[in-house]
Design brief:
The chain is mostly helical. The protein folds into two domains: about 240 residues, no CATH class; about 325 residues, ABC transporter involved in vitamin B12 uptake, BtuC, CATH 1.10.3470. It has 29 helices and two strands. Strands 1-2 form a two-stranded antiparallel ribbon. Strand 1 and strand 2 form a beta hairpin. Helix 1 runs parallel beside helix 5, helix 1 packs antiparallel against helix 11 and helix 14 runs parallel beside helix 27. The protein starts with a helix and ends with a helix.
Length: about 650
Amino acid sequence: MSTLPLTVDLALAGLTVGSAAALSGIGLVVCHRATGVLNIAQGAQAMAVAYLLRDLVVVRHWPVWPAVAVCLLLVAPALGVLLDVLVYRPLQRRGAGPAETMVAGLGVFVLLIGVAVLLWGAAPLAGAPSPLGGAPFRLPGGHTLRPDTVAQLAAVLVLGLTVAAVTRWTAFGLRLRAVVDDRRLAALSGVDADRVSAAGWAFGTFTAGLVGVALAPYLLLDPYGLPLLVMETIAVAVAARLRSIPVAVATGLGLGVAQAELTRLRPSGQLLPLVEAVQSNLFVVALLATALLAGPRITGEERGAPLAVRRGGGLGGGRGEGRGGGKVGGVVCLVLLLLPLGFRGNDLRSALLVPALALVLLSIVVVTGYGGQISLGQAGYAGLGALGTALLMSGRIPGVPALPAAPALLLSVLATAPLGLLTGRPAIRRRGLALALVTFAVGTAMSRFVFEQPYATTGLTLERPSFLDGDRAFYLAELLLLGLGLLAVRGLHRGRLGRALTAMRDHEAGALAAGVDVPGLKLFAFVVGAALAALGGGLMGLAGRAFDSASFDPVRGLLWFAAVVVFGADSALGAVLAAALLIGLDAGTVPGVSAVAVGVLAAAIGRLPGGLAALRRTRPPPLAAAVPAVHLTPVGRRLRDAVAGRLAQERRP
């Protein structure tokens, strides 16, 4: 029997997801060409528009098409312009680097998720309306095509041709090309760069809303699931080098068709779960592949751009703070950590997560704050620590008997630490946005191919030792491990390795020229970060007495990264304060409040450089780069002053 009819039917079905991915790619490419920014918050924007449409139609009983028009033609573009004015324009005027802009985008991402949780709750919602219903279109050979798929393909064609025509044959297209080539020179020649940027953000948010409206009818609306699904389509834009719309469209359609065709593969035996995971997560595989193949840079980044985030020390008292500030931060942390000892019941159970999460956030401090490397995948290593502990305690590792909690946790940490090389190796040649995409893709792959697979997570046991069965006793044990972690991180930061990490963070090329083993230090930072994250993740599993894959969702990892940046990326005590904020706000109020708070502060990085640490400064740092350090080594200070002088000369008319 011929398989051609089935092949055609699957290809037509795959066009539904493929056309949505193509729309996402068009929006990302156009937004980047107009603004120079990769819209990393596109998934959250799509989710927000989809939720609003459902609310208008299902809850408020609006007719579908007027609701669609309001959401896509009014609310979505207005949201884009608002984000440009409040978030991204201050960064552009200050000359911020791509990494600071990425942090602001993460702030927008978690802010919109937090708002959605506050307004509509965290539980998945069904019944998202589809603007186009009716009978499928009949094609020759007995094949059918859904009306909404036809509409999405038509939108891809119309938007692609419109963007090409506007870019090539209109005065606005000429201004757009001028802004992309050199924003400062375009402004000097009379081009309103702010208007071009606002138009780019309006279009980008419009296409994000279009993607959300297209995908929502096929899914349960979830504040975490839909943003992550749309974020995976960044693979389409990366494959196009953030420039070519035809390549983005072809990649999106091709991945959609390929994902549908893969459903024909049904191998027998133990390979079936893995093949099924690849079939349903092909865009994750594509994101990882394109991020790795993109090389050290993503188009639009400067080759020598400084690293990741503005250092601040946070409220916890980094090395740049005075002794008084450090003591105050230490006292605040001590009070927050000892306060739960007076709690009971659910309040104490919620507080069990604070020391565990603080250890996970410490891993970000080591990797990003001390080592200067962006890592958006630390939630994956935390999940590996929890899963490894559960597997060892359940006797699921071949040849290893079921172990008690303490040795299982220790072995899980030791086994996870070398896996930090999964992100450490790519970090040797990558920085900024290129590294961020790789680490996010690795963390997402861990979640989709390991944590969410029943073959790896069913039948697990996570029981505490008998002498730590009570919540108060277990909390004291967590405090002991957190204290040891803080001492170890402090010793690392103040030792010889810490000075080498600081030199690498301040100026990688200068550190390399001075004889510092930069590749080895990067690997070391990621290995230590993986070990700390695994320890915190294992404690999170033991605190809840179960392995919960949702606790290590990649979106939560983005929230954790943004929180560390807000409280000072190079502050160990800031990590403790961030953990207390994330757990305490949601436990003491309603879920979503912590995401809103962190999102607002991270999105405001253009107006508040350095996050909360900026509140303690009396004057701005001498060099408004993407990664100035509050405290530099003598070599770092000389390099910084040299770079500042060179930039000042280049900026003179």
